Amino acid sequence: MPFKNVDRPIILGIVGDSASGKTTLSDGIANILGPDKVVIICTDDYHCFDRAERAGNGLSALNPQCNYIDILEQHVQQLKSGKPILKPHYNHSTGTLDRPEYIEPREFIIMEGLLGYSTRSMRDAYDVKVYTEPNEDLRIKWKTRRDCMERGYSQAEVSKSLSKRNTDREDFVQPQRTFADMVVSFYPPEERTQETGAHLNVRHTLRPTLPHPDLSPILEAGAKKGLRLELARDIDGKPVDVLEIAGNVDDERASAMENLLWELIPEAQHLRQSVGTFTDESNKQTLSHPLALSQLMITYHVVKAALGHHAI
Question: Which residues face 110 on adjacent strands?
């Protein structure tokens, strides 16, 4: 790849609770970078037990004891060294453990799942770390729709699962937030509380662990135009930049930010294409400006890492 100066795979981590938007972000970023240059690995494939076994032993998939974390650590290191792995495969549709897959590293590796930052060894392997944290009511809606439509659950089963997972979610998933360079939080606007798709707002919590792009050229007009950047304190009290993108941001304003991000990574101009599409409740491909800009913001950092700007 013309812009890649680092002689090893670049690894992006995307961690968050179940149905928090990890796969949608991952797929969009892979499409920007080029699907032939990216391998996406779901860290949830490293479950020790199938669905029936978990029901019997009372463990949830969010519990590290339910996952081969040590094997996942080894595989992350092997991939970073350019070596292939034999990856487990958990079938989310049937809840069974299927035949493992032979995976060769590519120029970019996206590791997405529940427990990707649960050990120091894994955290140190990533070039860019993202945590997804949508509004909780929104996440429950996303999870219910996905699990019922794609994984064969009933609404009652999803509700029972959510209740069962609450403690593990607080104990094992949420603490990983503190290790992220960027927290992505989708939430419905006040005037559209039932919104679950294209018109969601998004908040980017940008930690100083990475040099984030200078967006001032398009932000001086303030929030009235749908974009706002301010200095704030994160939940741990540490200073962060917070970028707010409104779901109703107009096409012109969104395009201006998109153009700025592409101008900041001119080495990757050849990758430019439409971003921010997702499958909505009607099973139609829909464009979301906040999603597109989120995918581009993350891609910006991945490209900078490939250039050696985020050396770890």
Answer: 12, 40
The distance from CA 217 to its chain's CA centroid, rounded to whole angstroms, is 27
Cα distance between residue 64 and residue 194, in whole Å = 34
Q: Rounded distance, CA 121 to CA 6, Å?
A: 20
Tokens of 283: 């099973």
Q: Work out the number of other CB atoms within 10 angstroms of the CB of residue 52.
A: 10
pLDDT-based confidence at residue 270 (cuts at 50, 70, 90):
low
Contact assessment for residue 33 and residue 295, using Cβ atoms and an 8 Å cutoff: no
Q: For residues 81 and 11, what is the distance between their CA atoms, to the nearest angstrom?
A: 11
Enumerate the domain spans of the chain: 10-306
Token look-up 């892979």 returns: 30
Structure confidence at residue 150 (pLDDT)? 83
Task: Determine the pLDDT at residue 75.
Answer: 98
Residue type for position 288: S
Distance CA 134, CA 25 (A): 13
Give 254's pLDDT tier (boundaries 50, 70, 90).
confident
Give me the percent of the chain exceeding a pLDDT of 70: 94
Higher pLDDT, 99 or 279: 99
Query: At CB < 8 A and 24+ separation, what contacts does 80-87 make?
Result: 80/8, 80/9, 80/11, 80/105, 80/109, 80/125, 81/8, 82/8, 82/9, 87/41, 87/45
Residue 89, pLDDT > 90, answer: yes
CATH homologous superfamily of domain 10-306? P-loop containing nucleotide triphosphate hydrolases (3.40.50.300)
Give yes or no for a contact between 290 and 200, defined as CB atoms under 8 angstroms apart: yes
- Backbone phi and psi for residue 229, each to the nearest 5 degrees, phi listed first: -125, 130
- Helices and strands (H and E) in the chain: how many: 9, 12
Question: Do residues 119 and 69 make contact, with C-beta atoms less than 8 angstroms apart?
Answer: yes
